[in-house]
Design a protein that fits this description.
mainly alpha; globular; about 75% helix; single chain
């Protein structure tokens, strides 16, 4: 089984997953079983993340969250690559909104990793990096989500980080084409500071909805066959890589 054959099979279903299934939040119907093949899933995620199509990068970032036994630096690689892509664009380039969307999926994948004691250290490092970058002037609109997961798991240093983030949400001036008001950041900071249980559980609720969307997704025979065919190719690649 060659890398070419694996990637050719992936591209036959990638648009369907990135556009149609993701529209309903059900892309995990493909990503979840693929994540059980860790070498193959990590290989695909890394390759797909090089795409100029931000929807394919979002899909790769989401896939990383489902990988069992993931490379611990995978999400860190993705964040740096997306940050570099963002920084190469002019300050007012609307394509910078695409990078915000990709980093959102990186943050959610880190939240999935944080559920596991084995992978929580890597997740915490990634999530803290997103927040620290934002505090330093590299704005990411899901930094509040990253901070929420850190607080949810009571990660070391999260209280001090929250205090700094709260100050940021009140005083920062952001130059970004999204023109953020920082209203969301203020609300999250206030609710996290007061240990609002609904806010502390907010990102976990998103993860649960993603899992449920995949569980209840209705696929026709063509869709189910496409997934089965792809997984067969992926399983052969995984076996060859073992």
């Amino acid at each position: 089984m060659s890398e070419y054959d694996l990637l050719a099979a992936w591209f036959r279903i990638a648009d369907w997953a990135a556009y149609d299934l993701a529209k309903d939040g059900a892309e995990a119907v493909i990503l979840m079983p693929l994540g059980r093949l860790p070498r193959t899933a990590a290989f695909i995620a890394r390759h797909a993340f090089t795409s100029s199509n931000y929807r394919h990068r979002k899909l790769a970032a989401s896939l990383a969250g489902w990988v069992q036994q993931p490379p611990p630096d995978l999400l860190t690689e993705f964040l740096q690559q997306e940050a570099d892509r963002d920084q190469r664009l002019p300050i007012e380039d609307i394509r910078r909104l695409e990078s915000q969307s990709v980093v959102e999926d990186i943050v959610f994948s880190a939240a999935f990793w944080a559920r596991s004691e084995n992978f929580r250290p890597s997740a915490v490092q990634l999530l803290r990096d997103v927040v620290e970058r934002t505090l330093a002037g590299e704005y990411w609109n899901t930094s509040a989500y990253a901070l929420t997961t850190l607080c949810h798991h009571q990660s070391p240093g999260c209280d001090e980080l929250l205090m700094r983030f709260k100050d940021f949400s009140v005083n920062a001036k952001i130059n970004h084409p999204s023109r953020p008001s920082l209203t969301q950041e203020k609300q999250f900071a206030q609710n996290l500071a007061s240990k609002n249980p609904k806010t502390l559980q907010a990102i976990e609720s998103v993860l649960e909805r993603r899992q449920e969307a995949a569980r209840i997704a209705v696929l026709d025979d063509t869709g189910r066959t496409a997934i089965d065919d792809y997984l067969h190719v992926a399983e052969r690649f995984e076996a060859a890589a073992a």
